[in-house]
Amino acid sequence: MSTNGSVPPISSLLTQPSPSSQLPNASNSTLGANAFLQLLTTELQNQDPTNPSDPTQSITQLAQFSSLQYQQQLSDAFSNFQNNFGVLQSASLVGKQVTVEETPSTGAAPGSGSSPTVTGTVANVDVENGSPYITLTGSNGKPIADANGNPILFPVTQIVGIGS
Fold it and tell me: Is 81 exposed, middle or buried (0-12, 13-18, 19+ CB in 10 A)?
């Protein structure tokens, strides 16, 4: 088998790919789409003409890769659905009284068991990076704010109770 000087050796394609060539959310031990196609092309260019590889093997690999791409797209679509559903559920809390664990920026760490809580009425829902956050108004009708007077955004995952 001869090697072409312009084609990278197969061993260079088996090293850890850069994050930009990976599929989104893929683990670091998998090949991305570009690396797979480069590997397949290099394999076809360097095969021995007197002993060609089984053509069904390449088609099977391509079908498996296509299946993985569809699974990744389905996973991404489901993740987007979850985010949108979370926003819709959060919107149903507007006007309701909720109890929320305080965050490190407002007090103790959530989930520590001894975290103080804040109770207020949900004033609105803000979405940042696809995740819903709520702002609360206290019993005095004013927004619950930080030391600078900015309304605090509470992640909906920190809600520990919902009132009326």
Answer: exposed
